[in-house]
Amino acid sequence: MQLQSFGAALTVTGSMHLLTSGGRQVLIDCGLFQGNDDLEARNREPLPFDAAGLDGVILTHAHLDHVGRLPLLVKLGYRGPVHCTEPTAALAETVLLDSARLQVDGYRHDLRRARRQGIPDEQVPPPLYDEEDVHRTLALLRPALRFGETTRVAGLRVTPHRAGHILGSAYLLIESGDARVIMSGDLGNRESGLQLDFTPPPPADAVVLESTYANRTHRPWAATLAEFRDALRGAVRQGGKILIPSFAIERTQTILHTIKNLMDAGEVPRIPVFLDSPMAARATHEYFEYGDELIPAVRDTLQAGEDPFRPGTLHVVPTSAESQRINRYDGPAIILAGNGMMTGGRIQHHLKHHLWKPSTSLISVSYQSPSSLGGRIVTGADHVRVMGEEIAVRAHVYTIGGFSAHADQDDLLAFLATAGTPHVWLVHGEPDVMESFLPVLAERGLKGDLVPDRQPVDLTGPGYPDGRPAGFTAPPPRSGSHGGE
Ligand SMILES: [Zn+2]
User: Which residues form the Metallo-beta-lactamase domain (predicted)?
Assistant: First the structure.
């Protein structure tokens, strides 16, 4: 089985992996590059394969960096099936429609600015795709993948298993003849406050493994909760707005559930909570449909007919006009808005209005790519550019890493421990993080390699001359799993 990666190779974004086996070609994920201008420019590069000639597409989950270039594939002539789980299809609709809207809004904005500068319209890059392209794409979704059930896709046997990352997320066991390969997609944090753990993987010859946090260990869940509670209490004392930039799927629901628990337990004051993200509000509805993927505490609340994601003081902000009005609200209030890396979305105007005030608190609960706006703020920039304006960073900035939806080093090793895999191919990580993981793999008798950008590799070629590694013990979850079944 051959792999060629056109995204998430030597970087954490733009996942797109082409598997070739027996002359058939299947694409695993088709994600958008996000984070900074250089990365985003890659979305405009021509795809280096014949989109119309693909034999199938499989999605691991609905995050934009895994599905966001699908409409481009369809624009280039792909008309075949896009296989995924049911929740992934539901969330992909929300995610792709939002992405199209952002593309078109961005284009209109650029066009107005270009005209004021006397630049001809045709020099403004058009949107990558629009709502119509998304509807054509959604018509190709085949949401029939079920955890633990094998499906045939273009001659390959494909078995999705629960990845525990976001609702519907799957890792894939792909079999062709005798070869067995696992494509990890994104794997969950075994201490998620929302999702059940990933199911232990079956044995495989090779694992293509995400490595976002392969160099670190997240804080235990209890410590993360205490850290978040203390940040909120400190922020309330500052008296200003409390900005929580958050991704719409998984992180927002985790944070809402945590705030609700803290307020119900009397651990933080009942100040107003504004959910300023229509996309997050829509995504939250899907959690009511697929409660069986959630940890018992959340599932039980849902089954009792209660809303686990609604603190008593929650206001959902539907329109951007109402979003602007929050800025005139006096007194402390929590504002949850997208996106998590602060590179776009409604969080930007809140940053512009509040980042320069010492009374403001910014609580980062998301992964921050070093080159993104969020990355610059959390690493201590004095001034940043927000919506075309220089803004001083005077807000109190808290960074809380333990809410991560991604596996940390222990989680990745626990995953590999049961796969009994001779060869681990690393994707979806920063190169220095992946390099530092190689000796950790070697200590456990595993051969690791970084998947090169765009260059084909033979996944099931010779791994270890001595056959399978002896195996090793999985590191236990940090504070005892609360996510098992
Ligand atoms: Zn993801």
Answer: 13-218
Q: In this structure, what DSSP letter does residue 408 have?
A: B
pTM of the model: 0.92
The closest of 55, 53, 59 to 17, measured between CA atoms, is 59
Identify the band that residue 481 occupies on the pLDDT scale cut at 50, 70 and 90.
very low
**CA of residue 63 to ligand 1 center, whole Å:** 5
Which runs of consecutive H residues, i.e. helices, occur in 127-203?
131-138
| Tokens encoding 111 | 């066009």
Phi (first) and psi of residue 373, to 5 degrees? -60, -45
H or E element in which residue 18 lies:
strand 17-21
- The DSSP H or E segment spanning 334 is strand 333-337
Largest CA distance in the chain: 68
Half-sphere exposure of 461 (CA within 13 A, CB side): 9
Distance (angstroms) between ligand 1 centre and the Cα of 188 equals: 9
Backbone angles phi, psi at 367, to 5 degrees: -65, 135
Instruction: Work out the angle between the directed axes of helices 86-116 and 131-138 (0-180°, nearest 10).
Output: 160
pLDDT band at 479 (very low <50, low <70, confident <90, very high): low
The Å distance, Cα 84 to ligand 1 centre, comes to: 14
What are the start-end ranges of the E strands in 111-252?
141-145, 151-153, 156-162, 170-176, 179-183, 206-210, 241-245
Ligand 1 centre and the CA of 165: distance in Å?
A: 7
Tokens 């984070």 sit on residue: 35
Give the integer Cα–Cα distance in Å for 66 and 49. Answer: 18
Residues around ion ligand 1, judged by CB within 5 A, are 63, 186
| Cα 61 to ligand 1 centre (Å) | 7
- CB proximity list for 29: less than 8 A, separation 6 or greater: 7, 8, 15, 16, 17, 58, 59, 60, 66, 67, 185
